[in-house]
Design brief:
The protein is mostly beta strands. The protein has two helices and six strands; from the N terminus they run ββββαββα. A hairpin with a 3-residue loop joins β2 and β3.
Amino acid sequence: MSLLNIGQTVNGYVVQHIILENLYCESYRVCDREENPFFLKLYIMKRCPAKLINSNGVVNEIAVARGLNHRNIVGYVTDGSLALPEGDCQFLLTHYFTGEILAEKLQREG
């Protein structure tokens, strides 16, 4: 069951739909005011394995993403925390991308 609802706003971004969920993390497609798509990854802290959290209490993936800036890596936008009924959560917001698997690319391009 997803923690965020379609139409809910998180840090100014509107949830469009859930992409994936597991025990400690959920991924969503969200959009800004201009309807540009973004990717939001929500970490449920009480379920997050300790090895995924650094000494400052921040999810390692978020801490690393803050310092990344490369044209071949999806771009970091922002991060933050939310207090939800399920408990405290941290989120990572990145640019959204659509991709295709290699077989699809080969079929399309010959």
